[in-house]
């Protein structure tokens, strides 16, 4: 969860590519799941985000070749890019 990031003027999460790469690296290096496709979703409304998650889970549940994994906050933290150094964001 990123609770201290401000969306850009366009309404999008800044540095989405960096966050996705960070998650991909975690999955490959720490969890030992190579060649993962990682998706980052964002919304100001937690309920809306949970609905999106459930819709995707239902969609991918049909395809047995796809594995959707939940990562606990205790196992992974995004590092928010900043000018003065890295800050851990839960």
Give the secondary structure arrangement, pairings included.
Elements: H1 16-29, H2 46-61, E1 78-80, E2 87-89
Antiparallel strand pairs: 1-2
Strand order of the largest sheet: 1-2
Assembly type of the chains comes to single chain
Distance between the termini: 5 Å
User: Over the alpha carbons, how many angstroms does the gyration radius reach?
Assistant: 14 Å
Q: Count every helix, treating DSSP H or I runs of 4 or more residues as helices.
A: 2
Helical residues, percent: 25-40%
Structural class: mainly alpha
Write up what this structure looks like.
This protein is mostly helical. The chain has one domain (16-89). The chain has 2 helices and 2 strands. It has helices at residues 16-29, 46-61, and strands at 78-80, 87-89. Strands 1-2 form a two-stranded antiparallel sheet. A hairpin with a 6-residue loop joins strand 1 (78-80) and strand 2 (87-89). The longest helix is centred in the middle third of the chain and has 16 residues, at 46-61. Mean pLDDT is 75; it is low at 83-90.
List keywords for this structure.
2 helices, two-stranded antiparallel sheet, single chain, globular, mainly alpha, 2 strands
